[in-house]
């Protein structure tokens, strides 16, 4: 609970949830923490400010033994649900952009291939993704189709030994540097939903990739607008077991699970930095942490974080037992993303004017929560998924 002055983070665990962790779980977490303290925190701010992807910094993640998350084949990490959550939590404590690069590559892209590819596809692509020799991206959202993701307009048409893709995608993380870009589309003839893997998108005829500029959140990871104009993809690159939106939803569920941990991690990163600052910063002759109004903010923050952590650990136990419902995952994402917004703003307030600049990291974390609030199902969509499970009535449409 007492922050060290030598590291950025103090690792808040007010309810001693660590008592439930195994040595292996602690070891993975420690590897990620060491990477963040040494390779990320001292260097990330200029990348965020310039909206530049820290490529070399991100590539170091290949040595952490975390690629592929829950997947355990072809060299993937095979993390258990707690480890999977802790990795997302720790990465996001330090930086949302690095966390998103990992989430998209390791979770959404490797997850799609691992869960929905056949043996040949997995053997062909996963080993290079584990070593980050190939980078993955996941293209579902479109300019005109966001929350209503099952209704994608991008089409696939069979043509001999290929499929021809036409359409547009928006917000696709990692896409401009991707070697394996998964495009979700509907078969023009059958109407069937499917996942099509474009290899080396930037060199593929008919693919136009435009980075989205002017983001206020997760600025150090690039999101991309994609245009697909008669793009030819070999038949062998259609994910073998993706035949309906429900298949993609299996991948999205793990992404949403991870987003619940991400939100809690971002909040705890901001809190820990604020706690340290308020104990060191003096006004009116005393540390500002000694004033009741500052303590109220600190207590509010740590209480919300503790509730998020507790919810996450129970979510992990339910996933382990295969008893995690869609509504439960949505509840963690819904609650934690909303509360992370609140907590990071309180943390920023504790720094006064210094909270407005990114030097102290909190402003960056505060803005990163805006993306977490929006992706993996917006707050409203997750609310409505919980409502649907609770009442049996679908208010989404
Ligand atoms: C930083 C970032 C990274 C992303 N990365 C990826 C990626 O890698 N791959 C990918 O495929 N996508 C990605 N996305 C897209 C993300 O999943 C979408 O932004 C999200 O699904 C919302 O879609 P939309 O932005 O089109 O908003 P819209 O769906 O247009 O929603 C706009 C508003 O309307 C509300 N709304 C919509 N429908 C309803 C309803 N039925 N009832 C009540 N309210 C409703 C929403 O909650 C929201 O407040 C990313 C987005 C961001 C911001």
Please explain how this structure is put together.
This protein is α+β, with helices and mostly antiparallel strands. The chain is 49% helix and 14% strand. The protein has three domains: 114 residues, Butyryl-Coa Dehydrogenase, subunit A, domain 1 (Orthogonal Bundle), CATH 1.10.540.10; 102 residues, Butyryl-CoA Dehydrogenase, subunit A, domain 2; 147 residues, Butyryl-CoA Dehydrogenase, subunit A, domain 3. The protein contains eleven helices and nine strands. Strands 1, 2, 3, 4, 5, 6 and 7 form a seven-stranded mixed sheet that branches. Strand 8 and strand 9 form a beta hairpin. It is globular, with a radius of gyration of 21 Å. The termini are far apart. The relative contact order is 0.13. The N terminus is likely disordered. The structure holds flavin-adenine dinucleotide (FAD).
């Amino acid at each position: 609970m007492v922050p060290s002055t030598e590291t950025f983070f103090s690792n808040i665990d007010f309810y001693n949830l660590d008592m439930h962790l195994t040595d292996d779980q602690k070891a993975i977490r420690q590897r990620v923490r060491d990477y963040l303290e040494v390779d990320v925190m001292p260097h990330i701010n200029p990348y965020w400010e310039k909206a530049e992807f820290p490529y070399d910094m991100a590539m170091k993640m290949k040595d952490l033994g975390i690629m592929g998350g829950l997947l355990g084949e072809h060299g993937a990490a095979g993390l258990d649900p707690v480890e999977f959550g802790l990795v997302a939590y720790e990465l996001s404590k330090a930086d949302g952009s690095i966390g998103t690069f990992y989430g998209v590559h390791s979770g959404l892209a490797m997850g799609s291939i691992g869960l929905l590819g056949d043996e040949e596809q997995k053997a062909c692509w996963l080993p290079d993704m584990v070593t980050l020799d190939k980078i993955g991206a996941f293209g579902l959202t479109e300019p005109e189709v966001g929350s209503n993701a099952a209704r994608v307009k991008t089409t696939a048409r069979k043509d001999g030994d290929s499929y021809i893709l036409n359409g547009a995608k928006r917000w696709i993380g990692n896409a401009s540097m991707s070697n394996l870009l998964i495009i979700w589309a509907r078969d023009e003839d059958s109407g069937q939903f499917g996942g099509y893997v474009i290899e080396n998108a930037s060199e593929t005829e008919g693919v136009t990739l435009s980075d989205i500029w002017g983001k206020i959140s997760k600025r150090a990871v690039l999101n991309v607008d994609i245009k697909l104009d008669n793009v030819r993809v070999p038949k062998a690159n259609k994910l073998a077991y993706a035949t309906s939106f429900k298949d993609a939803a299996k991948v999205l569920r793990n992404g949403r699970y991870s987003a619940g941990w991400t939100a809690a991690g971002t909040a705890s990163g901001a809190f820990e930095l604020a706690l340290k600052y308020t104990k060191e910063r003096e006004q009116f002759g005393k540390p500002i942490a000694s004033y009741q109004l500052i303590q109220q903010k600190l207590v509010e923050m740590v209480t919300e974080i503790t509730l998020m952590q507790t919810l996450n650990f129970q979510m992990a136990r339910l996933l382990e037992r295969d008893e995690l419902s869609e509504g439960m995952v949505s509840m963690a994402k819904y609650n934690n993303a909303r509360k992370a917004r609140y907590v990071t703003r309180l943390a920023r307030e504790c720094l006064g004017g210094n909270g407005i600049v990114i030097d102290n990291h909190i402003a960056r974390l505060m803005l990163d929560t805006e993306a977490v609030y929006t992706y993996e199902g917006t707050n409203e969509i997750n609310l409505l998924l919980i409502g649907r499970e609770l009442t049996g009535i679908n208010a989404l449409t």
